[in-house]
Model the fold of this input.
Amino acid sequence: MIISSPKFFKKESKLPKGVKKIYAFQGCLEELFFINNPRWKKGMSEARRPLAEFIKSNNDQGLWVYYPWSNVAVHIVREDLYFKLRTTRNRNLITSKEQNRYRQMKVGIAGLSVGSGIVSALVISGGPKTIKIADFDVVEVSNLNRIRARLEDMGGSKVQVVAQQIWELDPFADVYIWDKGITKENFKKFITGDPCLDVFIDEMDSLDLKILARIICREKGIPVIMATDNGDTVILDVERFDLESQRQLFHGLAGNLGLNNCKNMTREKWLRLSTKIIGSGFMTLELQNSILQIGASLGGVPQLGTTASVAGAAVSFVIRRIANGYKMPSGRYIISLEQNIIPGYNNRREVKNRLYKTRSFKKKLGL
Done:
């Protein structure tokens, strides 16, 4: 599949005929003036003359970004100024130095249902310019509760939809598209091929590929991040293979795993191994009940778009810390809306009730 990236033009006259034009250049210059001169605000009479002088003194004519899939061209300032504008409201929550280090990261994401929310969080926060995305699937209506797509995207490649969303916000991004998805044969190239990843983000369903990813990343010293939907809770796993070359896969929760564990994988075996990796004690009761219904009343593991959004924020935060060399140890981190919002969620009676039901769940699953 050939997916067109944005095209850049220096002159308006060179744009394709019939293109819709959006003139954002003047607005960009005005914003830059007020960013550089915070003592003035838009609408202040005393700012009119210096603003006019600033615009008149500008020698840069910017560039036109042409999006072939929508036949739209936008006139904006050059890349460094555009990035400054787009990230100015991050300051000083993210310093300029932190932002630049975050921007320089090279990340790869496999699995674009929940992964699309992670991509969105990375891009909107001014994160990695270099992104590899992989998914073999197309957008279906049932994806629309969590994937950032439109009805008109139905039947289109997930990687195409996500790539276009990246470029529509960050036209200068270097997006590497793997529309055939990940296989055992090409996985190493996805992770270590030019450009080699700084971080791998795992949002895949395939257990054998999850294991293989960690084997490759551990060998090459590349950290792995995985965000798992768990009802209204996110289970965030950080595996710092860049710091711990002998670390067990999945924190050792499922024992000493290897690819042999995935041979002759039935649905029941997949559910049991997945539950070991996630940890039944971490699962919400709603997710436990849902897992028991897979193959009966449910076709797959249920996921919420709101939880996917939380997952995106959490993953982008971790990558920012890794990029800047801040303390970000391996481990499992729980971001729970239930625990932090529902009154009495962690009182003795509720905890005891969840423990009892979790034991029953494990017994039914044969664990």
Summary: The CA atoms of residues 66 and 295 lie 46 Å apart. The mean pLDDT is 94.
